[in-house]
Amino acid sequence: MLAGIEAQAQEQVRKQVAAVAAHRQAHSAFSWFRQHEPELRQLQLEVARIPAPPFGEQARAQWVRERFLSTGLHDVRIDAAGNVLGIRPGAAPGGRLVALSAHIDTVFPPGTSTAGVRFENDRLYGPGISDNAAGITALLGIAEAMEAAGLRTRAPLLFVGNVGEEGEGDLRGMRHIFADRSLREQIGAILVLDGAGTDTVVTQALGSRRFEVSMRGPGGHSWSDFGIVNPILVLADAIHHFRSTPLPATPKTTFNIGVISGGTSVNSIPETAVMRVDVRSTAMEEIERLEHALRSAVAAALGSASRHSNGEPLAITADIRMIGERPAAELPAHSRLLAVVRAVDDHLGNFSRIHRASTDANIPLSLGCDAVALGTGGTGGGAHTVQEWYDPKGRDLGLKRILLITAAMAGMAD
Ligand SMILES: [Zn+2]
């Protein structure tokens, strides 16, 4: 019975998508994508040449703001976190917003050269060219094509170029948007545009927590102070305890010790030792269990350090600081958004798999707002390296897919 109702609902969504795709304005937006690929490519190169390191996205935000204005978006503004927002009004007043976002930050530190950003042999190259210059290009391309085609939706659309998606940015841009209660309540669904491809739809938010563990001791000379507690040894002991934590195969749960630092010289007992730990799982309970295991491992290492310090008072302290948190969550299987994505893929003859990843969609999904992360067509590779590339062949399929999902979610004005 339930399956029957679902099939019926899916059939209805299929019809709606077919009706949206049959609109003259949709066709005209589709041909805009094909005709303007050279301009999209130029935009992508231009934005990739503006550095946007974590916490240093201002110059790129200004560029996006100017683009939003020239595309004719309304109420264009940069919020307190540095996100750029603009509205495309809907034909029916009062409808909930359908949002499209693309993160504008890159993983690359300040000073990374953009000299390698170029178009060569049908491919674009350069740091951040796909992740996420491709996403920003799609965001602008969708707005431009809708404007040029005169495509009007019933519900208003919110366009967002957001900061802080990568690494230690810790989703702060998206977090800021969804911390604004009145804005959050206006958003009915959000499409997160990130990178290349059309073969996946991210509906499951991979959760993570990141920690920095610091051990501090008095330090001293390697010969004359020998026997003083050594923070590197205590940290190594903590790692030894932590790595033996059992992990379930399902829900998939992982940990990584990605950075280790500390010490002064080979002949000094170090004063500090620091490690950075990344814990991930599809289930929040597992993340919490691993956090507990990490804290116990540190406590156990401190405990054995005190036994080994020759009766001296224990002069070592440990500090565990959370440096990142991304909530785990999932788009409900019967959400209208997922039905629309499926119907659009069928309509376009595109095949996509459900994917789990850590993206800006973690934040809305964890708050019960329907969200997916989508690639923006074409192909890409070498993400998070300066050899990153993007091949725009097939970009128009990605853009059609995003446009149809957006228009079906927002409804077409008559
Ligand atoms: Zn990205």
Return the structural class.
alpha+beta
The tally of structural domains comes to: 2
Strand content range:
25-35%
CATH-assigned homologous superfamily of the largest domain: Zn peptidases
Overall number of strands? 19
Write the layout of secondary structure elements.
Elements: H1 2-22, H2 24-35, H3 37-48, H4 58-71, E1 74-78, E2 84-88, E3 97-103, E4 118-120, E5 123-125, H5 133-149, E6 157-162, H6 172-179, H7 181-186, E7 187-193, E8 200-205, E9 207-216, E10 220-221, H8 231-243, E11 253-262, E12 268-269, E13 272-281, H9 284-307, E14 317-326, E15 329-330, H10 336-348, E16 353-357, H11 362-366, E17 370-374, E18 379-381, E19 389-391, H12 395-410
Parallel strand pairs: 3-6, 3-7, 7-17, 8-16
Antiparallel strand pairs: 1-2, 2-6, 4-5, 5-19, 8-15, 8-17, 9-13, 9-14, 10-12, 11-13, 18-19
Helix pairs in contact: 1-10, 1-12, 2-5, 2-12, 3-5, 4-5, 5-12, 8-9, 10-12
